[in-house]
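#lab-general

N.A. 3:47 PM
ok so I finally got the sequence cleaned up, no stray characters, all 225 residues accounted for. can someone with queue access submit it? mine expired

B.Y. 3:52 PM
send it over

N.A. 3:53 PM
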Amino acid sequence: MIYSNPLRGPSDVASWIAEGPVQFGTHDDGGPGRAADGATALVLSGSLDAEEHGDHAHWTLWCPELLPDHVRISWDFRPLEEPGLAMVFFAARGHGGEDLFSSSLSPRTGFYPQYHSGDMDALHISYLRHKYASERAFRTCNLRKSAGFELVAQGADPLPPADDAEGLYRMEVIKDGPRVAFSINELPLFSWTDPGPDPLGGGYFGIRQMAPLKAAYRDLRIEKL
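B.Y. 4:20 PM
back already:
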């Protein structure tokens, strides 16, 4: 185990780095987002009105641990209120090798172009794409490599809408050198191997949502392969 976090409530992410208007909560009333054993889950949502603030209502939340390459990253997830989009960043670092939080990089405020076409490199998987009608009509999980916003792999999205979700769903990312694989509840959704001479290595892990999505998270585990 390299890093673990129960994600039971806001205090568990007090040291995480928020970029943009993220709002923290806890689901502890026995409803959606509560695990079978009764444990609570961390609830994340946006604090700004999506219609009023548009693309500036979205946010990113970074785990402060610098991770090595060759890891398995897993966590529980459940959508609570839609529409919206959920994604994760990993292998994130400054373009040119700088630390992701170096003062030499441009400030980030949750505005998406800062992450996919700015001065940082990362891989990111959007695994709940229910923000727009076109995404809900044909649901996919997308893997992109940035900077550059290059779509490199795609698979089906088996997550149901929030009204149909039951319990928490186990998400898993494998980052093993040039290879990336993604699964939900042990169902493989895609596997991709970077064909380039310089695949991304270690870096930071972050959670991102597009407002007005409200979602529950629990039991983050990062393990060495």
